[in-house]
Amino acid sequence: MPGPSGGRKLAVLGGLMVLFIAALALLSTWALNRG
Questions:
Q1: Which positions, given as ranges, span the membrane (predicted)?
Q2: How confident is the model at residue 32, as a pLDDT?
Q3: Per-residue pLDDT tens over the stretch 7-31
């Protein structure tokens, strides 16, 4: 990964993964509470 651009891309990917996992957790808890 040459330069800071690669690190920024990796940080963006990490943030998206965290957001995705948080959304999945919220959806699962919401479904459990509904059922």
A1: 12-32
A2: 94
A3: 889 999 999 999 999 999 999 999 9
Q: What pTM, to 2 d.p., does this model score?
A: 0.65
Residues with Cβ within 8 Å of residue 24, at least 6 apart in sequence: none
CA distance 27 to 18: 14
- HEC assignment per residue over the chain: CCHHHHHHHHHHHHHHHHHHHHHHHHHHHHHHHHC
Residue type, 27: L
| Residue 32 structure tokens | 């459990």
